[in-house]
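Known limitations

Files may contain more than one protein. Parsers should not assume a single record per file. Below, a two-record file is shown to illustrate correct handling: read the sequence, read the token line, then continue until end of file.
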Amino acid sequence: MSKKRYVIDTSVLLHDPTALFNFKDNDIYIPLAVIAELDKFKKGNEEINANAREVIRAIEHLTTSGVHSEGIDLGQGGKLFFHLPNAKPEERSLEKLMQQMKEPFADPVLLQYASFLQNQDSTIATSIVTKDTVVRILAREQQIAAEDYLHDKAKLDLHAFFKQEQLYDVAPKIIDELYQQGVVDVPADFGKIELNQYLVLRSTQQSVLAKYRKGKFQRIKEIKAVEKIRPQNYGQQFLLDACLDQDLTIVAALGKAGTGKTVVSLAAGLYQVMEEEGASTKKYDKVVVIRPTLELGQQLGYLPGMEEEKIAPHFRPINTAMHIILGKTAVDYVGREEWIECMPINFVSGDTFHNTYVLVDEAQNFSRKEMKMIGTRLGSGSKLVIVGDPFQVHNPYLDEKDNGLTVVTDRLRGKAKEFAYVILDKGVRSPEAEIFADLL
């Protein structure tokens, strides 16, 4: 494959601060206006601000020995170039440099630069790489190739993924053996199946819930209830089994709004925490719930009060779930740190979770980098459960294919023996909620 030239937009570097090193042996071009935009984002405590600072440090390191006109080696055969559009090296005065750095937006400069490179040598493919859909549209209108940054996007087709078959027809003897022995060999002609996959096996007369592990079907024992939560369908039965299975230490639950993802997974966590020390159901010391602190709609501004008061509105759905799970006794447990702790993502870095049931709610609004940070905080005896709806992404810098929930599921399914995913496609909140989830 011949070498290509990629003109990188600010949006890509803010999304993935390691992007400079992910284009293999192809050359990367960055207009100085992009550097100026990075500088505008460097102050702040959000992930995007941290990413801007990381990129700036990486560029500073790469340019330690100077900015060479022949490019800076990136280590895999590709080179990094900076450019002042439409100016020869001898014309790059300080005045012109400062003029470009003052550009309010890098988008016009990006388009101009790509056009310049394309006209300079049309034998080498040139493309703009940007997360900004509008820039891609404008580039194509100008006959300039443009593409999204795909390095950290999940490869799976989410719509097909949600529609995948979970009901399988088998011979009656397989179901009989599962009820009698709890485990049975998978028929040689059964077809493709993934490690730790959950499925419903059925014959003409009966059915059984099962999961695939170590080349065999294992029967899932029916769970009547956990705390006050009774599974409403086989998807919720699958999720409870995965949350209670000590061999599965990483679980992903993907489902539309109102399918019970949070309530079921939280109930399973509390069930394994709240019993007395030494009880057979006690597996963890604490439940830690991590949620994004994004605001939807009109911004409310800074919230008054101490840390707990500031984060309380973001974790109100967890308190609601606690009341559903525990009933009137919930007020006795909310806020008692020996059982459950609500933690914003800002406080996760540097911590370690030992013997902890970590529940990441609304995981589709966390980035791959944030999910990696959470996952690498797991200590001995801990379990990570991530839940969310990949089609309801409210983080403006993510989409359905590069959010943390989707990427974790795509990267781990079928590869890690500790991982299982569950798809919940049946709403249980109310008929009205399902109408809005399906039709809007």
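...continuing to the second record:
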Amino acid sequence: MMDLFKQETMNLYKLITRIAPVWAILVAMAAGGFLACSKMDDYKKYTVEGEVSYTGKVDSLKIYSGKNRVLVEGLLSADPKIIECRIFWNSRNDSISVPITRSGNIDTLRVLIENIEENVHNFEVVTYDREGNKSITVNRIGTVYGERYQASLYNRPINQHLLTAWDTVFSVIYGKMDLTSGVFATELVYTDVDNAEQTVILPISRDSVLTTDYKIGTPFKHRSWFLPDTLCIDTFYTEYATVRPNINFFRNLGYPFQRSSNSGRWGILSDWITNDAAKNVNGYGGHDTNTGTGVLSFEAGWGTPQIHNGKIYQTVILPPGKYIFDIEFNRNAGDVANPANNVVYFLAAEGDTLPNAAEVPAESIAFEELNFVEPSQYRIRRFEFTITETKQVSVGFVCNYASDADQFFNVRGIAYSREELE
């Protein structure tokens, strides 16, 4: 009996071991089928209303910056279903809707959005079809400029501005600027000799302007132009600054004086009118190089003839203003016993010439006697006069060296300036 029981037990064990692999496979298949069914069910819950349909998105999107505005530009694909584009910014608190009419090809989206607050904004662009299906959102950063940026701008500095009255040549030399500010040009506006307004646009790479037709007595104005970045659609400007040019009405003012012709040490001054009385050395006079440098000069004695009403001057058209001259001169005592025969004046007189020495006090706008001061050496004397309307004026020297004394008068140089009247 015991042997029979052991045999039955052994047969049952063999049967189980043969069945086990099949059972494991069946269990695994059942589990896999269950999991597969579960995943299918999960998918269905997301597509209960049908499959998701996307419209074509905007490609190559760019946001062009501007002054309280931006230009949105992009390409619309050939998706014919697109009928609307919405642009969002300010964390989607602001938006604009743009209707789209398709051409059947790739179309360009171009939308100008005004009245945006100055700031850096994230713009979101989405397209829609008639069923309300939308595209994938396309994001771009755009910058809006406004009063803060405008307040940071300043005009390009001027290092020098000068107008030469005798040839109406006007020149301006500008200083450097920080190019990261976006500055790219300066605009200069002036009035020409025909009373017409002229405008010059100076690129930031250049630093000077030169014109040959500037109208004396008129100011010029200038302002600078800025583009804050390469995608900006708006140019920013500083306020116009109005400037009156420094005018040089007088030429050849010394340090040293230049001459147009000479005979030995004696010559005739360039750009000055010298009358025959001042050319008292064989037709030359008014310029002397005896000291080793060119000076404006009167001299009588030491074998040279007397000078009666010798005149050296320039005649110009002067606008209203205060005119200031600093004359650096030297002269000897000469004939101190006869002051009427030993006089040198610097003066301004209306018209195209200077009066004779005796009429200087009565016929001058202003005058200054440049008399001898002990000891004989160079000194500076200031001379000023004011006119309130534009007029022709002659400015220069009148000399009487009408005695037998040895007398000289030398001018090393003249500094000149002009002040506007208030």
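Parsers that stop after the first record will miss the second one. For reference, the second record is described as follows. The domain at 58-145 is CATH 2.60.40.10 (Immunoglobulin-like).
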